[in-house]
Amino acid sequence: MPASQARGLLFAVAGAAIGAVAACAAYAAFTRGRPADLSGRWTRKNHRGEPITLLEGPAFAAGAGAAAALTPGLPARVRAAALIAGAGSAAVGAYDDLYGTSASKGFKGHLSALARGEVTSGAVKILGIGAGGLGAAALVSKGPVDTLVNGATIAGAANLANLFDLRPGRAIKVGLLTGGPLLAAALLRDSPVGAALAAVPLGAAAALLPDDLGERAMLGDAGANALGALLGLAAVTELGRPGRYALLGTVAALTAAAEKVSFTKVIAGNRVLNGIDMLGRRPVASV
Questions:
Q1: Could you report how far apart the first and last alpha carbons of the chain are, in Å?
Q2: Which tens digits make up the pLDDT trace of 36-54?
Q3: What are the b/e assignments for 21-40, b being 16+ CB within 10 Å?
Q4: Which tens digit of pLDDT belongs to each residue from 153-171?
Q5: Structure confidence by residue, pLDDT tens digits, 174-186
Q6: By three-state DSSP, how is residue 142 classified?
Q7: Which regions of the chain does DSSP assign to beta strands (E)?
Q8: What HEC string does 5-74 produce?
Q9: Most buried of 7, 150, 162, 215 (most Cβ within 10 A)?
Q10: Is the overall model pTM greater than 0.85, yes or no?
């Protein structure tokens, strides 16, 4: 194995390990002494109507943030971009978790409300994620066009990940299935920085997957937004211009489709996708 590939593998293992350990430690600290009930601020009902904690999200953000700060091999600008993308999207996601309502949904709903002069928590999140995406992109891009494209991709990926966080483990599985090939490509291309950057959110997410699948916790907006933003940042850092444009188009298309189509229904109606979605989950209750 060439020295550069070995270095990339070392950085990736370090990033994943630090992210995993830090996320687990944060989750244990956040949930200590907090039984799952329906009265806690960080407790919600899941798709079964059962109480579930949202503290997995802040734990993921804390773990990924620690890994971004401590993982070797990341230049200062890339490290700062990861912290901005992850922490920024997690912060506005947490605001929506705690204070959001279901009165307005989706981009169209929140932007329509904003046009009427009503500032919803979702609108705050959209604007905050967009600003964080541009801020992170400015640190890793060349020129204003690249900054706009990369910023839109990071913000779009943050929002898209949250659209999958409707069933146990789904958002994390999507993150692993998309981030895994990105990590592999970075290792094969002798890109230590790209490998480390992709490994950070993957390690933190994988460590929290058992509690997510066990329906004891969920990422919520805070965790899902941070997961998507960090993977988006890793992608725009690793991909060339054609790949980044294609990724932005894919993210935009899926986001637009989500306004009209239920991802849950599409997944349930496809044998392969449903099999992946149900892997490790409790069986669906029969009606």
A1: 54
A2: 444 577 888 787 878 889 9
A3: bbbbebbeebbeeeebeeee
A4: 999 999 999 999 999 999 9
A5: 999 999 999 999 9
A6: coil
A7: 43-45, 51-53
A8: HHHHHHHHHHHHHHHHHHHHHHHHHHHCCCCCCCCCCCEEECCCCCEEECCHHHHHHHHHHHHHHHCCCC
A9: 150
A10: yes
